[in-house]
Amino acid sequence: METNSLNYMKNKLFGGIVSVVIIIGTAFFLQDNSFSIVRSEYVSTDTPGLSPASVTQTVELKDGDTYDLTASYVKKNINGTEYRMLAYNGSIPGPLIKIAQGAEVTINFKNGIDMNTLLHSHGIRMDNAFDGSQSTQEAMKPGEVFSYKLKFPDAGMYWYHPHVREDYQQELGLYGNYLVVPKSADYWSPVNREAALFLDDMLIEDGRITLNKQEASHTLMGRFGNVMLINGETEYSLSVKKGEVIRFYVTNSANTRPFNFSIARAKMKLVGADGGAYEKDQWVNAVTLGPSERAVVEVMFDTSGTFAIQNKTPNKTYTLGTIGVNTDSVEVSYTSEFNRLRTHGETVASIVPFRQYFDKAPNKQIKLSIDMGGNMMSMMGGHMMPDGTRMGGSMMSSEGGIEWEDENEMMNQMSDADAVKWKVRDQATGKENMDIDWTFKRGEPVKIRIFNDPNSMHPMQHPMHFHGQRFLVVARDGVPQTNLAWKDTVLVKAGETVDIILDTSNPGIWMAHCHIAEHLESGMMFSFKVE
Questions:
Q1: The pTM is what?
Q2: Cα distances (Å, whole numbers) of residue 18 to 21, 23, 385, 388, 493
Q3: Are the C-beta atoms of residues 403 and 291 closer than 8 Å to each other?
Q4: Which is more confidently placed, 373 or 460?
């Protein structure tokens, strides 16, 4: 820990120097015309002939049902301008698909857009052939249809999105939720109603959505947006009665931005995460979510007035939407149930068989880092310090290991998949990204240690996602975690070491990757096999 602190102080010391080098280098390259930004054929304001995005519908599917889902272009109004965007079944977000735990359904998915795509059901422990990722399926060409046969063994909130050019297609609106209803009627506490919230942002500059259809851009930091959205809206609002208790299922669908979700002045209880309930409920003021992570919170509104939904970061607070509580009182009150912090026996019991692995040495260890080349290295100096380290390590800009904003906007804008290579490195073999070839046996849990190197060229947080399995986050920087929930994504801060126990319950070849979409596009992924 002392070494990490010294490295961090060293990185911060050279921050000002690198900032000057970046600015000077950028000016040089722009003036010399040796660096140009690739222009895209995508025109965000090209909307003639497109139907307006519709209101998101809730679709309830029973065991054995079949449902048709299509990706297509729509037009959507954002802050007074119509934009060309993407939607599932015409809405942003796509339909909320509600399914009973244990059910199996078929989703007939049609690619109705002019790009290759895939439908990935995020967090679902389905059969491997229907994962909708590049490790299991060829990309679907425009006009193609594929039948995804999905199983839903776990209660909770999950979601679906593309797995081809995720940075482009998801950014334009291709995302939707699965709500898996628990078999047990008392799995969750009683509430007056439930609401699903997608947290998102978009980068809109000079009246246009900033995206490149040919290739991923902003690969250094990932694409931070300047327009905040809830469920695709800039002015989300919800009207409730005084005394209502609402369970919110919150999903971060942003390409890059972490959210610190809060509802000002409201009493909030964290009850669940990616894969269902925590062992114990806990009172919270806010919940941090990296891209693709979910949180389940229950909130009681016992006074009338307006409550702001916020992204509350260390340096700035954004208002994402509002909740208006009128003076009419709710007919049925769940105040007593809300004020009780429950222990969720089903979650506790599911974790018991894995506790024997918590204190064991890790079976696998990976390091998260970055390589830069070409213009990127030249622009940031690219030379060595007297102690043998590169100046680039000083590009870390935020304390606490999380970059809440794009603090290297100019460099980030000019970065692409050729200039920036984000890496997952197997510490034992030295293999990186898709050269990693792990094989595990079904039913034999694996302890994986994830280290986010603070001395890399640009250390920042990474939300690491494992397909087809679930895992437990059992330690952070060696500190045991005492209130667990099943996860499929974990946000690993810069300089942090995270230990997870992977439940290898689902056979097949699966992907694991950073869920910052631009980092995925720049190669930050690997595959593993469960046999």
A1: 0.90
A2: 5, 9, 12, 16, 22
A3: no
A4: 460
Specify whether the CB–CB gap between 214 and 38 falls below 8 A: yes
pLDDT in tens, 365-398: 999 999 886 555 555 544 333 343 444 444 544 6
Burial 406-429, CB ≥16 within 10 A → b, else e: bbbeebbbbbbbebbbbbbbbeee
User: What pLDDT is stored for residue 398 in this prediction?
Assistant: 61
Integer Cα distance of 210 and 141 in angstroms = 24
CA distances from 35 to 39, 79, 218, 248, 273 (A): 13, 33, 15, 46, 44
| 3-class secondary-structure state, position 447 | strand
Mean pLDDT of the chain: 89
Looking at the fold, whether 368 and 450 belong to one and the same domain comes out as: yes
**Per DSSP, what are the bridge partners of residue 103?**
none
Please compute the mean of the pLDDT values over residues 492-516 and round it to a whole number: 97
| Residues 216 and 254 occupy one common structural domain | yes
For helices 15-32 and 2-13, angle between their N-to-C axes, nearest 10 degrees: 50
| 293 and 419 co-located in one domain | no
DSSP-derived pairing of the beta strands 489-492 and 508-514: unpaired
Q: Which percentage of the chain shows pLDDT scores above 90?
A: 82
Q: Contact at 8 Å (CB) between 122 and 488?
A: yes
Number of domains in the chain: 3
Residue with tokens 């729509």: 74
Considering the domain boundaries, does residue 43 fall inside one? no
Give the helix, strand, coil percentages of the chain, each rounded to 5. 15, 45, 40
**377 and 396 together in one domain:** yes
Mean pLDDT of 300-325: 96
CATH number at residue 429: 2.60.40.420
| Structural tokens at position 470 | 């679930």
Please give the residue range of the domain that contains residue 64. Answer: 58-181
Same domain, 401 and 495: yes
State in Å, rounded, how far the first CA of the chain is from the last one. 37
Residues 86 and 219 in one domain: no
pLDDT on residue 376: 55
On the question of pLDDT at 485 being above 70, the answer is yes
- What is residue 3's predicted lDDT score, i.e. its pLDDT? 41
Domain closes at, from 344, 373, 398: 344
